[in-house]
Automatic annotation (TrEMBL):
GO terms for molecular function: DNA-binding transcription factor activity; sequence-specific DNA binding. The keyword DNA-binding applies. It comes from Pseudoalteromonas rubra. Residues 11-109 form the HTH araC/xylS-type domain. The keyword Mitochondrion does not apply. Pfam families: HTH_18. InterPro entries: Homeodomain-like_sf (IPR009057), HTH_AraC (IPR018060), HTH_AraC-typ_CS (IPR018062), Tscrpt_reg_AraC-type_HTH (IPR020449). It comes from the Bacteria. This is AraC family transcriptional regulator. Keywords: DNA-binding, Transcription, Transcription regulation. Transmembrane segments: none annotated.
Amino acid sequence: MATHNKIKKLNAGRDYIADRFQGPLCLSDIARSSYMSPYHFLRVFKDMYGETPNEFLVRLRIEQAKKMLITENFSVSEVCEQVGYASLGSFSSLFAKQVGMAPTSYRRKLWALSSEAYRFPAQVIPACYAYHFLGKLTK
């Protein structure tokens, strides 16, 4: 039963991050939502999910940025701000590290696959992938 309770607490912290990923977050607030100390939360989160809360946060932000870059006509700076980064340089560096190319290159590459500007190139991406990461196909 103690394990079930620990998982519920960790899930509460993970949900806290997912619900607030677009704004500034601090470990103590996240840990407080799980009724744990920051250091205990960090250690247990890493053990349970295989990534730190910060790695989880970065992954969420980059995935949202990828969606926005291919489905919206926002500038890279606007995407950067909307996913929770204050520094375009930090965002671009993290994006390139995670995705393997700069945000602008990522956008250009995927938009080039589409026959219409600002349209997600659904014809070249498997539907299961699009549904999973975008929630739906855009038309």
